[in-house]
Amino acid sequence: MIVTLTMNPAMDRTISVDRLAFDDRAYILSSNDSPGGRGINASCVIHSFGGSTLAIIPTGGDHGERFEHSLNSCGFQVATVPIRNDIRLNLTITDRHGLTIKLNEIGPRMAQLEIDDVEKAVVSRLDQAEWLALCGSLPPGVPSDFYARLIARAKAKGVKTLLDTDGEALSQGIEAGPTIVTPNQQETERLLNTVLLTKTSAIAAAKRIHTLGASTVVISLGSRGAIGLMSEPGLAMWEAIPPRIDAISPIGAGDAMAAAILWSLAKKDEFADALRWGVAAGTASAKLPGMSFASLEQTGEVYQEVDVRQIQL
Question: What range defines the domain where residue 138 resides?
Answer without folding.
Answer: 2-311
